[in-house]
């Protein structure tokens, strides 16, 4: 199984969510060494917590060389599509605003998973302009509806996903406590089991 993680985008990401995503990558690599993992990161300088290839053998980390692709959402998604076309992962697990129409059209068999981690732009009165709220809302709603699986960090986020975007609970996985970087804890096992279920449904051998 080849799983690609896409870390980037412009929807708000909390510190807790970022740590959870990095811990999930580390836990899956540690607990399931047979799983090939690739990480596509928009700006590697902002993700110092990423597992280094020397520490996590078998993990490949890619990021755009061009400054424009690291700072422009359109060019970042175009770069991401190019990496998927070249490396052909079985499953893509990403942040909330990476699943564009073009990406899904170009790769109709690619299974997509999205992590939902923050609804503050809908519930907090300050900190966001009207256009930011509107943009983030559209991005997150579209990604949740397109993804085969939505991962929520806790029950509250899962309830908000149902409330705001009408995603059925059978398409939501509650990740729970932050995965252990040593591979322990239930979160990594739950995520990996969900990956295998999605791929088996599409006929991909795990």
From TrEMBL:
<dbReference type="GO" id="GO:0016757">
    <property type="term" value="F:glycosyltransferase activity"/>
</dbReference>
<dbReference type="Pfam" id="PF13439">
    <property type="entry name" value="Glyco_transf_4"/>
</dbReference>
<protein>
    <submittedName>
        <fullName>Glycosyltransferase</fullName>
    </submittedName>
</protein>
<feature type="domain" description="Glycosyltransferase subfamily 4-like N-terminal">
    <location>
        <begin position="36"/>
        <end position="173"/>
    </location>
</feature>
<dbReference type="InterPro" id="IPR028098">
    <property type="entry name" value="Glyco_trans_4-like_N"/>
</dbReference>
